[in-house]
Amino acid sequence: MPYLQSIDVRYGEDPSSEPSAGIKTVDGSSADINAGFGGDFVWLIPTYGSAATAASSIRIIIQGDADSAYYDLAKGAGGDYRYLRLERDGGAKISEVKLLRRGDGVDFAAVQALGFQGVSGDINEGRGGDFLYLVWKY
């Protein structure tokens, strides 16, 4: 079984730039991280491989200062910088990842009811609009 190795951030100028291999949403809504906020179109592209170097969780980092070590998930939208970081803590390995976009926040029980065992923080925290999470299966 392949496991999540990395997530690349891809930018585009219009919806037709969406990569076919990008992370999809649970319900078929927009996979553009910046949907509703202006700025660049932003998509996430997963890479899968062996368990030896696989990710076990995904952390969202939101801060006021730019960090050149990461790609901004809110590029061109203004406000805080939003980054993702894969954690490799030796626990269970991520085998599938999707985006979950909702009008209201979700708790872990709601994520489990959708068949997922992990959830990131809200990518859109503090900027209004939809709640947006990465959810995953082990």
Describe this structure in words.
Helix content is 4%, strand content 36%. With 138 residues, it is mostly beta strands. It has one domain: Vitelline Membrane Outer Layer Protein I, subunit A (Aligned Prism). The N and C termini lie close together (10 Å).
Task: Tag the structure with descriptive keywords.
single chain, 138 residues, Vitelline Membrane Outer Layer Protein I, subunit A, two-stranded antiparallel ribbon, 1 helix, 7 strands
Structural class: mainly beta
Indicate the radius of gyration in whole angstroms. 14 Å
The profile of the biggest β sheet is: 3 strands, antiparallel
Number of domains: 1
Which fold name fills CATH's third level, the topology?
Vitelline Membrane Outer Layer Protein I, subunit A
Distinct helical segment count: 1
- CATH structural class: Mainly Beta
Please give the CATH architecture. Answer: Aligned Prism
How far the N terminus sits from the C terminus, by CA atoms, comes to 10 Å
> How much strand?
35-45%
The helix fraction, in percent, is under 10%
Low-confidence stretches: none
Which sequence of SSEs, written as H and E, runs from N to C?
A: EEEEEHEE
The geometry reads as globular
